[in-house]
Each structure stands twice: as C-alpha cells, then as structure tokens.
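Subject: complex prediction, re-run

Hi both,

The earlier run crashed halfway through, so I resubmitted it with identical inputs.
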Amino acid sequence: MARTTGSHSDITGPKVREAALRLFAQNGFAAVSMRAIASEVGVQAGALYNYTPDKQTLLFNLLCTHMEQLLAAFTDDTSLAPVDRLRRFVDFHIRFHADRPDEVFISYMELRNLSPENFSAVEALRRQYEDRLQAILQSGADAGEFDIADTKIATLAVIAMLTGVNTWFRVGGRLSLDQVIAQYWDMVRKSVMSG
Amino acid sequence: MARTTGSHSDITGPKVREAALRLFAQNGFAAVSMRAIASEVGVQAGALYNYTPDKQTLLFNLLCTHMEQLLAAFTDDTSLAPVDRLRRFVDFHIRFHADRPDEVFISYMELRNLSPENFSAVEALRRQYEDRLQAILQSGADAGEFDIADTKIATLAVIAMLTGVNTWFRVGGRLSLDQVIAQYWDMVRKSVMSG
DNA sequence: GTCTATAGAGAGATAGAC
DNA sequence: GTCTATCTCTCTATAGAC
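This time it finished cleanly. Structure:
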C-alpha cells in the first residue's frame, strides 16, 4: 500500500519542475498558484518549498536549464562551408524547439516575470546562442558567399522566423517536420545568399 | 480649481484604456490589478467599472481594437505586380507595428488570458490579416514570379520574421527604421523569389 | 461619475506536528 | 519530506453615499 507521506525527494523534485513547466506554459506564470502546482504533483502546497525557495526561483531554474541545454546541444563545425553550417543550424533549431514547445513558450512569454538579476542571466545565455548564428552568417559574408547588409539584424530575423514554427506546428498536422524544415531552409538559404 | 469628483467620462474612458494598455504590456495582464490601473488614471478602483464591465472585457477591447485598426490600415492593390504588392506589405507591416509596440506586445502575449469566445474573435481577425499576405504570395506563385513550396507556411514565416522587429527595434538606436525595412525587404524578397 | 467601504475569494510563504 | 493550519496580504467586483 502506497504511503501518502514520507521521503520522495528524488521523484518529487522532477515532478515539481515538470508540473510547473506545463502549468506555466498553459496558463502563464502569474496565473498559476503554488497550490495548483502542488495539486498537479500530488502534494500539499507547503511541501513545494522543500524544492524551491520561492515561485520566482522555480521559474528562473526552468528558463536557465532550457537555455543551457540549448547551448549544450548545438555544436557548430567551423570546418564546414558557411552554407552547410547554416543548414545545420536551421535543422537543429527547428528540431530542438519543436521537441520542447513548453520550454520555448515560457522562455519567450515569462521573461518579464523574472527579477532583474535573473532576467540578465537568462538574456546572457540567449545572447550566446544568437552569437553562434551571427558567427556563421559573418563567415559567409566574409567569404562572399552571403549577401547580408547587417549580420546582427539577419541573425534576429532568421531566429524569429525559425522560432515562429512553434506557434503553429503540431505533430500529426498537414506537414511533417521534415517538410517544414525543408521549406524553411529553402527560404533562409535564399534570403542570405548572394545573387 | 480642478474638481476631484464629478463627470469626466469623455476623458476618463480613453485614459483607462491607455493606462491598461501600458501596464498590461509592461507587467502582464495577470500581474496588473484594477487598483494599479485606477492609480495610473487618477481615480479609485471602483470608478473603472463605469467604463468596463470587468477586467477581461478591458483586455478584449484593447486587442480587438488593435486588430481592427490593423485591418483597416492595410489596403492591398491587386493591380500591382506581386513583387510590388509584397514590398508594400513588408513596408506597411514593419511601420505599423513599430508605431504600436505595446499593442503588438499584448496581442501576442495575452491571447491566452482571453476567454474562449473572445480568443476566437481575435483569432479570426488575425487570420484575416494573414490571408491578405497569403493572397499576395499565391498570386506571385501562380504567376511564376515566386518560388514557394507552401504559401501558408511562407505567410507565417514572413510574418514571424517581420513582427520580430518589435522585440529589438528602438527609435534612436543604431539603425533607422528605413534601414531596417530595407534589409528586411531584401531578405523577404530573396526568400520567395524564383531562381 | 466618483468616492469610501467592504464582501468574499485566493494568493505566497511559514510553523510545527508527525 | 509531507502534512495541516494559518498569517498576512492582495485581488475583483459590488453597494450605497454624494
């Protein structure tokens, strides 16, 4: 017979983060109460404070972990031609984000609910990721293979376009992820290529 | 000497909407109290209910008004060549959105705080706007001037890219709006053009 | 039309028993 | 580690005076 009280730190901890992630993505950070998270996990509200000092830190850890996994998952290969490095980035970005819709959603929607210090930390990680794409675009521009007026703007334009996939793509929809990636790659490639 | 009580419906009404818009954009719908809005306007919380039946309707009216103004402001000209219609759309979209950062922000961030019926109404308006761009892309594809695998995806990709300008553009920054529009137009044009 | 006052619900976080 | 109970605060919305 299952206990209803006792030690469960190794399973409850992850469950708290999973429940918070899902509820924050669904209803928004401010609209989700600690009681709602606890209810999803199957504990009382007070028990959550064994796993996070407060609600703010819970959000910060979710966003930070997501950005760190993003940075860890993408490895550029500078020995490739710029166009191939760009193709790898596009493929990676769409796949990685399509796999984690909740993480991506709160990473864009809940930034303003971070304390100023926590916001700066997450922004720094995001900036690191953007810099990797900018380096690829700059290498192609330097080699004369790309025609880009301003690589920083092009970086932001491409990332906005690719991340937009998450607002509408659903597995089992009209198009497969491979088809989606193929079209986005075609558009991105043409948008930066020199005539 | 100014009265502190009395009739001010013609000035208080707009002030309520302006204050709500600014505060919702800054702090998020769920995080903004009716007291905070009232304080910004210079009245007590109870007085707000002369202008809106509730907080939800206040948000809905802001989003609805924005989408209706967007639809009213853009007029396509089907007598032009597809590439010129597209150029006009890109120019219009970036300018219109750059002028209304708060409206654009809440239109993307606060959709989930709408009631289901209100959400459907706003979504229908957004869909109308997307359809106008899709019609342009389709006309160019039909004429063989554009090379687009799927015009619906291309529509969403272009809009995501263009709307992304709002996340970083600031008047008085490194680049003028005209320079920004020039580069985005270059990228959009190339991304849909055939060989 | 605006005020003051308040009803009624729900929030984040903590204390102490087990 | 989890529970129950609770402190303290804030919220939306309404009622009735002016």
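Residues 5, 33-35, 45-46, 49, 54-55 of chain B lie near DNA strand D (CB under 10 Å from a C1').

- K.
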